[in-house]
Specification:
This protein has 220 residues and is of the alpha/beta class. Helices cover 43% and strands 23% of the residues. The chain contains 8 helices and 10 strands. A 4-stranded parallel β-sheet has the order 2-1-5-6, sandwiched between helices. Strands 8-7-9-10 form a 4-stranded parallel β-sheet, with helices on both faces. Strands 3-4 form a two-stranded antiparallel sheet. α1 links the parallel β1 and β2. α6 crosses α7. The protein is globular and about 45 Å long. The chain starts with a strand and ends with a helix.
Length: 220
């Protein structure tokens, strides 16, 4: 029997051992393949793409560094990586970004966290004031507009997965804001980050990465 293939598109570059580990643990019955929208690009090429623009998304590069690239610059590259995974046998493809992505064609079913996560949160926190933690300051106003359009009363702040100081500040703000639930609205925050943030903030906390991995496991 041919194993199911779960495709993951990171908006930056591979390797992404964290994504592979989370999705493989959630879906042991599937083979996990990760492709990067910026794979194959050198430092100068990434720097050129990272020119200032609207809706800057935080991307992780192969060397562990990060960059901010406008969402609209990334969309065609994410679509191309998703199509390549589908052509290579992926039976389900996950876009590993919690930001708002437009629809694009793909031969395999797509899981877009920016659509499925609000639906899940609505089921457990309808009518409550929730906290949203984006990975960078530039993304915060776009995240606030998106979550408000989805019908939520939100308090928005930012904290990169690699910045414990920012996470501590964000946790303090969410505790003071007395939100009913916090969403770590970035695919870089794993289960350990979720548990630590929940403890520091004193608020129930959802991390997009493990939540989406569980959903993908049920579908692949």
């Amino acid at each position: 029997m041919t194993p199911h293939v779960l495709g993951i598109v990171t908006i930056g570059q591979t390797p992404r051992a964290d994504l592979e580990a989370t999705f493989a643990a959630a879906a042991p019955h599937a083979t996990v393949r990760v492709a990067g929208a910026l794979d194959g690009l050198g430092a100068a090429e990434v720097a050129a793409l990272a020119a200032p623009g609207p809706y800057p998304l935080l991307v992780r590069l192969a060397n562990g560094a990060t960059a901010e690239v406008p969402r609209d610059t990334l969309v065609p590259r994410v679509a191309a990586a998703a199509s390549a995974l589908a052509a290579g046998g992926a039976t389900l493809v996950v876009v590993a970004c919690a930001g708002e992505f437009p629809a694009f064609p793909c031969a395999a079913p797509l899981v877009v966290p920016g659509r499925v996560v609000p639906a899940t949160v609505r089921a457990i926190a309808a009518g409550g004031r929730i906290g949203i933690v984006t990975p960078n300051a530039g993304q915060a106003p776009f995240a606030e507009a998106k979550w408000r359009a989805d019908g939520f009363d939100v308090v928005v702040t930012h904290a990169a997965p690699s910045r414990p100081d920012e996470l501590a500040d964000a946790a303090s703000r969410m505790r003071a804001a007395e939100v009913s639930l916090v969403v770590l609205d970035c695919m870089g925050h794993d289960e350990a980050s979720r548990a630590a943030f929940a403890a520091a903030s004193g608020r129930p906390t959802v991390a997009v990465q493990p939540l989406v991995a569980s959903l993908a496991a049920a579908l692949v």
